[in-house]
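Reading is simple: each integer encodes one residue's backbone shape. An example follows:

___
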Amino acid sequence: MFEYAAMFGIAKTNNMTPAGIDLDSSLITAFPSLTAVNLPKNNFTRSFKQVITGRHASYDKRYEKLERIDTVIGVHMQSWKYFWNYREDIQRQFTFSQDVAENAYKAVKDNMLDSNRTEAETNHVIGVMKGLTNTTKNGAFPILVGIHVRRGDYISQNNINYGFRIADENYLRNAMKLFLDEYRNVTFLMLCTDLAWCKEKIHTTNVIIFSTPVPAVDMCILSKSQHVIMTVGTFGWWGAFLSRGKVVYYASPATSNTTYGNVLVIEDFFPPGWIALT
């Protein structure tokens, strides 16, 4: 998603045509509103000039002024700065398919009812996700906050050595407290890649911990929350960006003097206005 968004923003900035090369079919299926041309990978596209950045989690100013020839940009491209001027267009293009959205509503409804939430509260939450209902600070029904907890591959020794850091339970509690201090009533939907860990560490009654077998459905749930708490990784980043609400992120996602620590520029990766906590 970063590569697509960066490609689109860079193309628009340089008055060029946004085009993907052999776009991932799962991306096209989840987001049927993508507008970039999808080119096949062949001898023609292999002849394009390549402009590659060596720091995939930072911003490269070279892309602001490209030569007006067919160009392939680098991989990852994980900076909001590449597409911020076109963020509303990107958010529209990353509108989930009706099928993904319906599965997201069903997953939330089933898990809320399984957690003994009332029919009224459950229907309210689904209404919020569909954009049919709003919630005020002091309302009787809850504000909806999505949480994405990424562990899984991030806790492998190779990734730890690479420089990835994991947000712990203290960060999650601090982030949740921020919303609980501001709003009278909050429901947290915690989507977790390690359900056992989340259920062991987080015990508050206003948290519903679950995940679905389909990553697009999980991201859709985050995107339809009013606010989002992310931990680490780009999956939670995109769920947060698409939600358009308040976003809290883990302030220490990289270990200093590691491969990842040396390529990550915090102010290039996290947009202005997002809230850093530890």
The two ends are 26 Å apart (CA to CA). Residues 98-114 form the longest helix (17 residues). The first strand starts at residue 19 and ends at 21. The mean pLDDT is 94.
